[in-house]
Amino acid sequence: MGTSVQVTPLCGVYSENPLSYVVSIDGFNFLVDCGWSDHFDPSLLQPLSRVASTIDAVLLSYPDTMHLGALAYAMKQFGLSAPVYATEPVYRLGLLTMYDHYLSRKQVSEFDLFTLDDIDAAFQNVTRLTYSQNYHLSDKGEGIVIAPHVAGHLLGGTVWKITKDGEDVIYAVDFNHRKERHLNGTVLESFVRPAVLITDAYNALNNQPSRRQRDHEFLDTIMKTLRADGKVLLPVDTAGRVLELILILEQHWAQHHLTYPIFFLTYVSSSTIEFVKSFLEWMNDSIAKSFEHTRDNAFLLKHVSLLINKSELEKVPEGPKIVLASMASLEAGFSHDIFAEWATDPKNLVLFTERGQFGTLARMLQADPPPKAVKITLSQRVPLVGEELAAYEEEQKRKKEETLKASLVKEEEVNTGSDPNLGDPMVIDSRETRTLSDAGAAASGGYKDILIDGFAPPPTSMAPMFPFFENSAAWDDFGEVINPDDYMIKEEHMEQASMQGPGDLNGKLEEGSASLMLDTTPSKVVSTELTVQVKCSLVYMDFEGRSDGRSIKSILAHVAPLKLVLVHGSAEATEHLKQHCLKHVCPHVYAPQIGETIDVTSDLCAYKVQLSEKLMSNVLFKKLGDYEIAWVDAEVGKTESGMLSLLPVSAPAPPHKSVLVGDIKMSDFKQFLASKGIQAEFSGGALRCGEFVTLRKVGDPSQKGGGAGSQQIVIEGPLSEEYYKIRDYLYSQFYLL
């Protein structure tokens, strides 16, 4: 049998809940994504708690809570200790996303599911990989290779390719085939006939307008509100799709010389943009090339101001403005409070750019028709004063005294049990005495202090002395001899200390957020419930950056996996895509329930064979681009050690027919013919060459039974000198084997 593959969903099937799945490859358990919703409901993680201790590696796809939100909690509470793999942007931006969520929650509640230290501890286990980097696992995972590939959607977003014994398992969710302002499209279509493809049905029922039409409607809606003296609130994520929105606004403001203020408000906004500036190589080709040639960084923002505190926004003069504030769900964060303030004004606009998570305020407001009023809880953290502060300090003092008393009792018990002589207050242990000749050993740290408990020496004892060590440093004509290395080390430590800030972010965390993290001022949360009359405009536009239903179906047909597993999507969308794929993609389509383990092991038998030296010495290779290929005629035998081996055939090998290897684009061949003086043009899906010869591709490109060779180029026309000349030119574009 082939490589054993099992898939077990832990969350996020037949629903829009967070994504979390176990993929087992020959007994090696991958946890692919570890998501949590903005509600941070621990009940969602019960399936994960049962298998966390069996996980051997964690793969993260995107830097948002839906894909990595539960990582810190799982490591703290469930004993998840496996190594984590992600791209650099997913690691950095995911860390900032979790910081932002923690700070947003901590400001309005006694949030205790995880702390900043828990977040740091979880992300310290992350191994960062680059796109297309083959990472070979060791020990239990020997023989397994993992590689991240471009997914689109979010910066650093990943399609994971897991390979063992020549069989590929592809995990591709939330991918985007479209090239955007800051991201390239996915490379999923470059994979052909993988053994297993795991993908989602989230957008299976949705179709999208063209990017130009969508952007025009987006900017037109915003400008109408601003010109009517209204304010625009865009609830956004911390460091994901908001980057695309910022570039759209930044470019439009620059082109039209607009002066309406734009603010990006999160607890980590400055850090987010600072990191993004250094991730240009992870963005689309135009941004990277622009920086190479002109040193122009697309995220050197001139029209978008970065804020980390709502008080800074309140200082801005009244008037039309745009605020991009976290969280997109409106469950917490700055967007929650700003919505409560702005929703009552008919001139204002709340523009949603992604579907709200199920059960959130954003999802409620996106209903058709939207509610006319919503109940909201406004909370804020205020310092303790008066009697409350005194009671808090008294409680802290009492806890400290109890802790100190407990430690003294414990120390006394240890000392009493270790040496009976310590009951006498002035008995000096002979092991602690030192002679003057021992003074030279002081530099080596061999001395222990003499501890005396009491002040009245017994008559039989010598008077105790404080430890005294003679300074044995070397001197020369210029004074004491010093070691310069000691001072060099101190300077390095000082530089590191000055560069590092809270949370291992290399000093890139803004001062305001750092002060919030380090603030120990006694405080409490004060909450008020109010009913908000929703009079402002509510608009939803799809800027999620995911492929739509039609594109998903086309891509799946092109990839043509041997077995397909569908996850993450509503029940209706999942069933719709499942039925479509059964008819048009492959006969083996699975849509498992939570906790259901499905076996998607390949039906093909895989064997390892050794290429014998006698066989390879007679093989003639031919150059094919960056590769070398050859015909191999052999028969299977066994070596002395019992391993299968390919040996030369005993009888003469039959002759081989000539094979043309390669593929060309008709547009490229048209240009080639033009360079040879032959006029060619496209007509009715075919390439007309000269007066009488026509070239056309036939065959279904989605049928991958024979690889790309299932498409053929047919030459039509009367036999003539022109016909043979064009045929020779066509053959020259291929490799003859």
UniProtKB/TrEMBL annotation:
GO terms for cellular component: mRNA cleavage and polyadenylation specificity factor complex. SMART domains: Beta-Casp. The keyword Nucleus applies. It holds the Pfam family RMMBL. Transmembrane segments: none annotated. Residues 242-365 form the Beta-Casp domain. GO terms for biological process: mRNA 3'-end processing by stem-loop binding and cleavage. Signal peptide: none annotated. GO terms for molecular function: RNA binding. The keyword DNA repair does not apply. It is found in: Nucleus. It comes from the Eukaryota. Keywords: mRNA processing, Nucleus, RNA-binding. InterPro entries: Beta_Casp, CPSF2, Cpsf2_C, CPSF2_MBL, Metallo-B-lactamas, RibonucZ/Hydroxyglut_hydro, RMMBL. Belongs to the metallo-beta-lactamase superfamily. RNA-metabolizing metallo-beta-lactamase-like family. CPSF2/YSH1 subfamily. This is Cleavage and polyadenylation specificity factor subunit 2.
